[in-house]
From TrEMBL:
Domain OB-fold nucleic acid binding span(s) in chain numbering: 16-108
Source taxonomy: Bacteria, Pseudomonadati, Pseudomonadota, Alphaproteobacteria, Rhodobacterales
Species whose genome carries this gene: Sulfitobacter indolifex HEL-45
Keywords on record: Cytoplasm, Exonuclease, Hydrolase, Nuclease
CDD domains for this protein: ExoVII_LU_OBF
Pfam families registered for this protein in UniProt: Exonuc_VII_L, tRNA_anti_2
Top-level class of the enzyme under EC nomenclature: hydrolase
Gene that this polypeptide is encoded by: xseA
Principal location: cytoplasm
Record-stated family: Belongs to the XseA family.
Name recorded for this polypeptide: Exodeoxyribonuclease 7 large subunit
Length: 524
C-alpha cells in the first residue's frame, strides 16, 4: 500500500451505535409530530394481560401500528373493535426494539354517526347469534313485587317520576343504586349495580329486590351509548331478578332493551309495568268478594231448600222409634224369666259335674290309665326290635351297591356310553356339519336377495304407475292439450268479473307464464 494514497471516502465519518441511531430517529419523529389526529379503520386488536391495547389503523393503502396504555384504556368512552372506523388522537413515536414507528393513542372516537350505528348493528348481530335476545329467555314479571330495585342517576327527573308513579299506583319499597347514566363510567357502574342487586340475600338486612328497573331519560346516541356496551347487555342477561329497561324515550332503542325481560317506552311506563293500580285491585277484590258472598248465600239457600224437601219425604222421629220401643218392652218382660231359667240350668249342670268328680270315680279312672300304660309298655320293646332289624337290613342293602365289583361294572358302562357320544364330536363329523350349515345359509341368503329384489322391482313399478297417474290427472297435462290458467293478483281467475277487478293478470301456458295486464303501468 502506498503511504501517500488518499483515504477512502467516508473513512472519517462518525460511527453510531444502533441505540444511538434509534434514539436520534425517535427524537426527530417526536419533535416533528408532537400530536396528530388520524382517521382510519381499526384492524388487528390485541389485548394482552398487561391491560394495554395494541391495534392497527389502516386505510386502502397504508397501515400504522398503535398502542393504548392501560391507564388510558380505562378512561375511553368507546373501546376499539376490529372493522370500526375511528378518529385517533395521539403522538407519533418509534419503538427501537423492532425498528418501527407507531402512534401512542390518547383518545379514540368513532368517526361520525355512521360508524357508531355500524358498530351497534355489528354488536347486536353478534349478541343475537348467541341467543341472548331469544324470547324464551325472558321471564314473567312478578305481579306485585315487595321490593323494587332502581338503577339510575339519583339527581335526575327519572327517579322522581318513577317514585311519584309508584306512589300513585301502589306504594312499594324502593332501593336505589346510583350510577352515572352517560360517559365512560356509565357501563361499569350499571354492571356493578345489576350484579350487586343479584348478590343481595333475600330477607337479609338489605333485602334482595323482586324486580329491577334500569332507567334513563332521553338523549343522543352518544349519550345512551353506555347501555349499548356488551358488558351491560351480558349483565342484564345473567340477572336472576326480572329486569325492566326504560332507557330513553319511546323512539330510542338500546341493546339492553332487547335482552331485558320487558321494555318500557319511558321510565314512567316502567313504574306502571312494575305494579298494578291499588284502587283498581281493591275494587276488583271487592267485586270478587261480593260474588263469593252471593255465591255462598245462594248455595246455602239451595242446600236448605233441598234439605227441607228431603225432610218432608222422611217419616217422623216418633214413628221411627215406635217399633224399637215396643221390642225393648217385650225384651224387658222376657229378661227376668230367662235369667232365672238360665241360673237353674247351670245349677243342675254343676251338680252333675260335681257328682262325676267324687274320689272313688277318680281312683277308677286312674287305675284304668295305669293298666293301659302297662299294656303299651309291654308292646314297646318288640316294636323297637322289629324297627331296629328293618333299619339294619336297609343299610346292608345300600352298602351292597358300593361293593368294588359293582362300582367297577358301573364305571365300565359309563365309559362305553361316553365313547359312543364322543363319536359325534370328531373333527371330520363337525366339518361335514359346518359345511352343510354354510350351504343352507348361502341358499337362504340367495332366496332373501331374490325376494328383496322382486319386492323392490314391484314397488318401483307401483311408484312409476302412480307417477304416470298423477301426471295424467294434473292440470299441466291439460295445459299441454291447448288450455291455459289465468291468474289475477296471484289467485286463479274463474270469471270475467274477477278478471276486470284484478290489477295484474297472468296466463300460464304449458311452457311458461305470460303477464298480459298490469293496471298500474297501463295508460289511463
Amino acid at each position: 500500500m502506498d503511504l501517500f494514497d488518499d483515504p477512502a471516502p467516508g473513512a472519517n465519518s462518525p460511527e453510531f451505535t444502533v441505540t444511538e441511531l434509534s434514539g436520534a430517529i425517535k427524537r426527530v419523529i417526536e419533535g416533528e409530530f408532537a400530536h396528530v389526529r388520524i382517521r382510519g379503520e381499526v384492524g388487528r386488536v390485541s389485548r394482552p394481560r398487561s391491560g394495554h391495547v395494541y391495534l392497527d389503523l389502516k386505510d386502502d393503502r397504508s397501515v400504522i401500528s398503535g398502542v393504548i396504555w392501560k391507564g388510558v384504556t380505562a378512561r375511553l368512552e368507546t373501546q376499539p373493535e376490529e372493522g370500526m372506523e375511528v378518529i385517533a388522537t395521539g403522538r407519533i413515536t418509534t419503538f427501537g426494539g423492532q425498528s418501527k414507528y407507531q402512534i401512542v393513542i390518547e383518545d379514540i372516537k368513532p368517526a361520525g354517526m355512521g360508524a357508531l350505528m355500524a358498530l351497534l348493528e355489528k354488536r347486536k348481530a353478534a349478541l343475537a347469534a348467541e341467543g341472548l335476545f331469544a324470547p324464551e329467555r325472558k321471564r314473567p314479571l312478578p305481579y306485585l313485587p315487595e321490593i323494587i330495585g332502581v338503577v339510575t342517576s339519583p339527581s335526575g327527573a327519572v327517579i322522581r317520576d318513577i317514585l311519584h308513579r309508584l306512589r300513585d299506583r301502589f306504594p312499594r319499597k324502593v332501593l336505589i343504586w346510583p350510577v352515572a347514566v352517560q360517559g365512560a363510567k356509565c357501563a361499569p357502574e350499571v354492571v356493578r349495580a345489576i350484579e350487586g342487586f343479584n348478590r343481595l340475600t333475600p330477607g337479609g338486612a338489605l333485602p334482595r329486590p323482586d324486580l329491577l328497573i334500569v332507567a334513563r331519560g332521553g338523549g343522543s346516541v352518544e349519550d345512551l351509548w353506555g347501555f349499548n356496551e356488551e358488558s351491560v347487555v351480558r349483565a342484564a342477561a345473567a340477572s336472576d331478578i326480572p329486569l325492566i329497561s326504560a332507557v330513553g324515550h319511546e323512539t330510542d332503542t338500546t341493546l339492553i332493551d332487547f335482552v331485558s325481560d320487558k321494555r318500557a317506552p319511558t321510565p314512567t311506563a316502567a313504574a306502571e309495568l312494575a305494579v298494578p293500580v291499588r284502587h283498581e285491585l281493591a275494587a276488583w277484590l271487592e267485586g270478587q268478594g261480593a260474588r263469593m258472598r252471593q255465591a255462598l248465600s245462594q248455595g246455602l239457600t239451595r242446600r236448605g231448600q233441598r234439605m227441607r224437601d228431603v225432610a218432608r219425604a222422611l217419616p217422623r222421629a216418633d214413628t221411627l222409634l215406635e217399633g224399637p220401643r215396643q221390642r225393648l218392652d217385650r225384651g224387658g218382660e222376657k229378661l227376668a224369666p230367662a235369667l232365672i231359667a238360665g241360673v237353674q240350668g247351670r245349677r243342675v249342670k254343676l251338680a252333675h259335674m260335681s257328682g262325676a268328680l267324687r274320689p272313688g270315680t277318680l281312683r277308677r279312672h286312674l287305675d284304668a290309665d295305669r293298666q293301659r300304660l302297662a299294656n303299651l309298655s309291654a308292646r314297646l320293646d318288640p316294636a323297637w326290635q322289629r324297627n331296629l332289624k328293618g333299619r339294619n337290613d336297609f343299610l346292608k342293602t345300600r352298602l351292597d351297591r358300593f361293593h368294588p365289583e359293582v362300582l367297577q361294572r358301573q364305571i365300565l358302562r359309563r365309559r362305553e356310553r361316553l365313547a359312543d357320544r364322543t363319536q359325534n364330536f370328531r373333527p371330520e363329523v363337525l366339518s361335514r356339519d359346518l359345511a352343510r350349515q354354510d350351504q343352507r345359509l348361502t341358499e337362504v341368503l340367495a332366496r332373501l336377495a331374490r325376494a328383496g329384489q322382486a319386492a323392490q322391482d314391484r314397488r318401483r313399478r307401483q311408484i312409476d304407475a302412480l307417477g304416470r297417474t298423477l301426471g295424467t290427472l294434473g292440470y299441466r297435462e291439460t295445459l299441454a292439450r291447448g288450455f291455459a290458467v289465468v291468474r289475477g293478483d296471484g289467485n286463479v281467475v274463474t270469471s270475467a268479473e274477477a278478471a276486470k277487478s284484478a290489477t295484474r293478470l297472468e296466463i300460464e301456458f304449458a311452457d311458461d307464464r305470460l303477464e298480459v295486464l298490469h293496471k298500474e303501468d297501463a295508460p289511463s
